[in-house]
């Protein structure tokens, strides 16, 4: 499966993370997030990221024009929408860049997924918590057995360094990638490269 490393905030982490050859890197543009890079995005060396690695900009209920402007200015390849964005907003943004629409899971999959399947390239399933992502907790993955739509999805929420073998055993046809973040940090926003390396070496990358 593919791998997304999200919540990158440190310029110095990028060269080492790139060496791990993830499929996507995620950068958060949300002032309420402890991993927000909005005010220092100009300091991030995006030119260090090879073109084969997707650059994902993560937003929470930002105006459509703001999303498109930042995506185009910094060359992001995907826009991840992690708030209450409606299908029309997803559709407008997807005219410019593939949309990853996040849904927060508690004890059931959202009932409105069908409304989004034709205006999003991917879904992302995360655990409902205090923050819009990066809460470090997992939802019950068996809920995914009821997912029947064709839209591929990212699995997020509390994935930990010791979960690689478990993830390799998952057999959901639409599972596109796993999304890791807070459980791979020394402190908020600062990634532990050793933990990442161990996880990457154990994860089955197809």
What does this structure look like?
19% of the residues lie in helices and 23% in strands. It is built from 5 helices and 10 strands, in the order βαββαβαβββαβββα. The chain has helices at residues 14-19, 64-74, 87-94, 164-168, 193-202; strands at 2-5, 24-29, 54-59, 78-81, 99-105, 122-127, 153-155, 175-180, 185-187, 190-191. The model has no long low-confidence stretch (mean pLDDT 94).
Strand content: 15-25%
Counting DSSP H or I runs of 4 or more residues, the number of helices is 5
Largest β sheet strand count, sense and barrel closure = 8 strands, parallel, barrel
Task: Name the structural class.
Answer: alpha/beta
The rounded distance between the terminal residues' Cα atoms is 5 Å
List how many beta strands DSSP finds.
10
What value does the Rg take, in angstroms? 16 Å
The oligomeric state is single chain
Give the CA-based shape: globular
Series of secondary-structure elements, N-terminal to C-terminal: EHEEHEHEEEHEEEH
Write out key terms for the chains shown.
5 helices; 206 residues; 23% strand; two-stranded antiparallel ribbon; alpha/beta
């Amino acid at each position: 499966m593919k791998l997304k490393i999200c919540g990158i905030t440190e310029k110095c982490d990028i060269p080492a993370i790139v060496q791990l050859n993830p499929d996507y890197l995620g950068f958060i543009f949300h002032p309420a997030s402890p991993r927000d890079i909005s005010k220092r995005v100009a300091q991030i060396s995006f030119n260090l990221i090879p073109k084969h690695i997707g650059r994902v900009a993560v937003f929470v209920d930002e105006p459509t024009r703001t999303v498109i402007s930042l995506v185009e200015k910094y060359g992001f390849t995907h826009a991840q929408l992690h708030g209450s964005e409606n299908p029309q907003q997803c559709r407008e943004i997807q005219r410019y860049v593939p949309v990853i629409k996040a849904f927060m899971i508690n004890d059931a999959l959202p009932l409105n997924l069908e409304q989004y399947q034709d205006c999003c390239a991917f879904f992302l399933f995360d655990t409902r918590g205090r923050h819009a992502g990066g809460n470090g907790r997992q939802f019950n993955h068996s809920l995914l057995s009821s997912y029947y739509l064709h839209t591929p999805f990212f699995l997020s929420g509390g994935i930990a360094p010791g979960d690689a073998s478990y993830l390799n055993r998952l057999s959901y046809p639409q599972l596109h990638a796993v999304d890791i973040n807070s459980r791979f940090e020394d402190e908020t926003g600062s990634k532990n490269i050793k933990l990442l390396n161990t996880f990457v070496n154990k994860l089955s990358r197809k």
